[in-house]
Amino acid sequence: MVAAPFRYERVTSFEEAARALRERGEDAKVIAGGQSLVPMLNLRVARPAWLIDINPVGAGPIEDHGGYLRLPALTRHRAIEAAEVVRRRCPILAAAAACVGNVRTRTRGTIGGSLAHADPAGELPCVAVALGAEVTVQGPDGARQVAVGDLLVSYLTTTLAPDEVVAEVRVPTLGPRSGWSFLELCRRSGDWMVVGVAALVELDADGAVAAASVAIGGVAERPWPVPAEVLADLLGAPPAGERLALVADGAAAMLDPDDDVHASGAYRRRMAAVLGRRALAEAAARARDNGRPAR
Amino acid sequence: MSDPGRQRVAFTVNGEQREAWVFPHDSLLDVLRDDLGHHEVRYGCGEGVCGTCTVLLDGEPVSGCLLLAVQADGCSLVTVRGLAPGGGGLHPLQACFLRHGAAQCGFCTPGMLLTAWALLQRDPRPSRERVRRELTGNLCRCTGYSKILDAVQEHAARAAEETGGHG
Amino acid sequence: MADTEAPARQEAFRVVGQRPAHHDFVDKVEGSLLYAADWQLPGMLHGRVVRAEVPCARIAAMDVSAARALPGVVAVLTAADVPSNQVVERATGGLGELAIAMPVLAADRVRYQGEPIALVAAVTPQVAAEAAELVDVEYEDLAGVFDAERALEPGAPLVHDEGNVLVSWTIARGDVEAGLAAADLVVEGEYRTQRVEHAYLEPEAGVGWIDTSGVVTLRVATQVVEHAATIAAILALPESKVRVIGTYMGGGFGGKEDMTVEPYLALLVWRTRRPVRMVWERQDSIMASTKRHPFVMRYRTGVRRDGTVVAQDVDVVGDAGAYPYLSPRVLFAACVTASGPYRVPNVRHRARAVFTNNVPTSAFRGFGAMQVTFGYEQQMDRVAARLGLDPKAVRERNFLAKGDTIPTGERLDTAVAAGECLRRALAALGEPARPSGPGRRVGRGFAVNMQPYGRTVWFRDRAACWISLEADGSLLLRSGVTDLGGGQAASLAEIASEVLGVPLGEIGVHIGDSQLTPPAGGTFATRQLYMSGNAVLAAARALRDTLLPVAAELLDADPGDLAFEDGMVRERGDGDRRGVRLAELAAACQRRGVPTSHLGTWRAETGTFDPASGQGASFPDYTFGAHAADVEVDTETGEVRVLAYAAAHDVGRAINPLRVEGQIQGGAYQGLGYALGEEVVVQDGQTASTLLASYLVPNSADLPDVRAIIVESGEGKGPFGARGIGEPTIGNPAATIANAVAAATGVRVTQLPITPERLLAAIDAEGEDAR
Questions:
Q1: Which of residues C603, C621, C642 is at a domain's end?
Q2: Residues A186, A190, A191: CA angle, nearest 5 degrees
Q3: For residue C527, pLDDT beyond 90
Q4: Nearest residue, CB atoms, B136 vs list C198, C693, C700
């Protein structure tokens, strides 16, 4: 494992990072947690000319702003998993963070890096899409807000310009009578998901579904949000098993996943339906119980 | 800002101040092994999957193969040889591994010990399931894990009995 | 030469049967053991193998000039630089297999993806990697064959001009067609196993240098230091000019049994005259190191209505990959054991090793006898199901017993405790589990196996061990044995300690040096406890017999009244006893001119095998065992969760029960990985993924503890009645899981691994009622 040589600089702010990216050009890459980038360097499949290390930027605490949580981009997965405020206010995020890789991956890996890397089998991108999270993107000349759904374009591809970096992530918090579920099918604990489903269900005072959001990972070139038209069949009625199954099956039928060495596209589509049903059921059950904290 | 030549990095390893002159692309793993003689940190995959390169960076387990040496500048590193009290003998956790036959070929053992030790710092009496989940990133091809789990649990139980808990 | 000395005394063992942790295990827990890559010498270069990117091609041109010109590159070698560019598999037995030499570096023809074509030595690993990329090769693709059955068809592309069938073994007894015709029921089955990777945590590695006597010295992770002779031949040097030092390995499992880095390291050292280190990248190891043979197995099992097996016909086709390596021997072991631990009066086993343009296959724990367990144990369960009989009863009706004849015509001359192993494994599972939810099904399954230990007896196997009593009363052992983590070295110390009463801390063990230690043969075929264990036992007893008269004289006692214990020789009995310390005894021997060292040699039983008749001598003995498991199947996803697992093996006598348990638990886990998820997927000769992340070795979280059960029949051919345990434990899991899944779902999966997708497809295809 020998990386091809590169030049290296450290920055202490996201603005500085963006300026460095502009200055160093197309062959410059940001390194945050390194858990996705460095294996590619070691295998010599990625050969940036410059590495801009943003770790010195650091991460302050996760902030609770009522309707949303504000997470600095360099918040490590381990911190998200363990943070009391996340477990209480957005437990699906904590649950997803706990599934990322192994303990070493989670010690270094960051939420900003995970979203910028845009692996369609990544747990955090999947959950971020279901939540309707937003990111603050820092460029050399200023910052902009982007919905995660608009950030993630395709396999390892985002709408980030070459001189932009994710600076902050905002995730909506779960309201009362909200429930969540994050289920993934992995060949082995800690592996990338074969298929993963993030589901959020909100009930009204009568126990009928008031809102639902589902994203499926591992089935397309980016986490796939189940279209509102499909989820509409859930609205206004109690979350009965048969109805949930119909919606999940309907969503899965729209998928055309690729084959790979771990699973065929047909199996993935089928598992999207199975996990979709189970995730909606679990989210609905949690909604009835007013949402339980992450394990 | 660095030029393409080597730069100096300094960090403590097992409490001892060390320094090396490294290229930016040199991994922490290679520098620890080839420049600083810490062969107990090992190369197994270069992907962060196998765990043989585990070191503790400021107390937390990281993959040495996925860190650039320059990123460890100013940090405190611990390898398995830093677990033993005052540079001699075995840490009680190591003694438990020995007693239980938790090492066969021994290649995964330093990573296992460090990860288990770090877990016990945070959770002194983890369930067997909890230990299992924590060790998923430390692959073992020889033991089937049972004796490793037995050793960690026995050590945790003993340490909890003694005042001051796990060391 | 059998060990005819029965245990001379009735007293309990002092060391055998205990659980000491000593020698290398202390170093491993400390982290101080130096593995093959942990060695540096002044001026050391870094070596790298340049590998073919395509599986089947002619090398039209190769240009290394850019690589050679790169600053920091000291040498780039190609086939023309190899003095004798061939590896000839030694001691193949000459029993009808094709003689195919393998080039060290491919010259004009590439036969598998990853085949070495050039070598680089450079001042840093980074320069070596860059230089490797600068080697410019022009390939002309040739038609390749990537499936063993396809390779058997007429007109299939030839991997070697001599033909695609490397060897065909037949073992036959009685009249199998008549037997099948007369059977009440014939069950047919076809089973397919996959290509798997050893995935030792320590990649292939070594350091080489030329010592002050001009000897090319390699310090490498190898199971076989005897390869020194082959390396010498490649360099066209006298054998005395190559020395191999075997390091304590970070796992071997058969993947370090053939040469790995050795010939490349030796060539670079010889050419550059400088020390060279070579460590294979994990991804190259996954792509190009030898693998386990995928098998296609076809069974026809004829039985009486009461479940008695009357005839069995088995055909095995193994994918040998592009070069022979140890394929003939693997397929022979499969051929011998293809019916398992059962009496089969009319039997025919055919096993063929077939070349393809896939990565070569060779030794891997279980060695052919492992894969066939997936075949015969599913057949036995199918027989039971078709006849409406209890599967355990069907096994018990057919188990071999001591004195029975196996398909090769040999009589088993040691106890067969298969029944006890099965009984205890099932008992250890306790009450069956209940499904955890809707759509879940639970089931219990088991599998019984037999695995040879010791090499095929036609190889006239031998092992030697040197023992000496030092002036300070400590013992020194020198053995050519190599240690792959199973306590091969520590076991020798324990046996010597048992005989001579020296504390373990006072026994030094030096192993694995082709020039400094007596040859012991390699660590494979589960042979070392049997061979080197008996060798050290012979040496220790010989030393004891030499020392005893001297001690008797010193103590003015009868030799029969003296015992070796606690570093002394003293009178038996309790209380105050007269004795002499071993240091004193050593001095006394010195004064009397009595030798204080011995070279013990153990020779295995020998025999011959007749390939024409398919009858004759095969292996010295077998280890029998049984595994049992409860599984839960999620019928919506196809996922299999193993709820409980027990494994029982008859080890004859457990020298160190802690280590025996470790072998059982570790082997079972490796077998469970084989059963449930491991596969190196190769498509048209190209490895689909070379990432370790994609190769699904079991981790700590997904499988339960293996309850290890040690059965001791006392009748092994190893020291103190021990039997080998290194390999047997990996054979049972695949069939155990397949049988448990069939019990849970009514569906039988006959192809490995049993992935969720594959099981789901099988459930779809057969439905819940079919069997």
A1: C603
A2: 50
A3: no
A4: C700
Taking residues C632-638, report their average pLDDT: 98
Q: How far apart are CA A173 and CA A282, in angstroms?
A: 18
**Are the beta carbons of C701 and B34 separated by less than 8 Å?**
no
Q: What is the pLDDT of residues C709-731, one digit of tens each?
A: 999 999 999 999 999 999 999 99
Q: Among C603, C620, C643, identify where a domain stops.
A: C603
Backbone dihedral region for residue A64 (phi beyond 0: left; psi -120 to 50: alpha; all else: beta): beta
Question: Is the domain of C231 the same as that of C311?
Answer: no
Arithmetic mean of pLDDT, B148-161: 96
Q: How many domains does chain C have?
A: 3
The reply to whether B101 and B137 lie within a common domain is yes
Mutate to test the interface with A, among C277, C282, C636, C639 (most CBs of A within 10 A): C636
Residue of chain B nearest C282, judged by CA positions: B45
Q: Is A102 on the interface with B (CB under 8 A)?
A: yes
B141 and C34 within 8 Å at the Cβ level: the answer is: no
CATH of domain A62-172: 3.30.465.10
Q: Does A108 touch chain B (CB under 8 A)?
A: yes
Is A185 close to C756, i.e. CB distance below 8 A?
yes
- Rounded to an integer, the average pLDDT of A102-126 is 97
| Residue type (1 letter), A220 | A
Task: Domain ranges for chain A, please list them.
Answer: 7-51, 62-172, 178-288
Candidate from A39, A189, A190 with C-beta closest to B46: A39
pLDDT tens track for B36-73? 999 999 999 999 999 999 999 999 999 999 999 999 99
Distance from CA of C482 to the nearest CA of B (A): 12
Contact between chains at A44 and C696 (C-beta distance less than 8 A): no
Residue C69 and residue C51: Cα distance in Å, rounded? 19
How far C464 CA sits from the closest chain B CA (Å)? 24
Count of domains forming chain B: 2
- We report the CATH number of the domain holding residue C538 as 3.30.365.10
- Partners of C194 on chain A (C-beta within 8 Å) are none
CB contact under 8 A, C692 and B34: no
B30 lies in the same domain as B60: yes
Q: Are residues C209 and C326 in the same domain?
A: no
Closest residue in A to C700 (Cα–Cα): A189
pTM above 0.95, yes or no: yes
> Which residue in A has a C-alpha nearest to residue B138's C-alpha?
A102
> From B136, which residue of chain A is nearest by alpha-carbon distance?
A102
Position of tokens 């080998």?
A: C724
Residue C591's CB is within 10 A of a number of other CB atoms, namely: 9
Work out the average pLDDT over A177-188. 96
Say whether both B126 and B67 belong to one domain.
Answer: no
What CATH number is associated with residue B61? 3.10.20.30
Rounded to an integer, what distance in angstroms lies between the CA atom of residue C328 and that of residue C354? 10
Does domain A178-288 fall under CATH 3.90.1150.10? My reply is: no
Mean pLDDT of C143-149: 98
Alpha carbon distance C266, C245 (integer Å): 13
Alpha-carbon distance B120 to B140, whole Å?
Answer: 20
Structure tokens belonging to residue C202:
């320590």
Q: Which domain holds residue B36?
A: 7-82
User: Which chain A residue lies closest to C282 (C-alpha atoms)?
Assistant: A1
Most C-contacting residue of B97, B99, B105, B127 (CB-CB within 10 A), to test interface:
B105
Pairwise CB contact (< 8 Å): A105 & B48: yes
| C620, C605 Cβ separation under 8 angstroms | yes
Does residue B123 belong to any structural domain of this protein?
yes
ipTM score of complex:
0.96
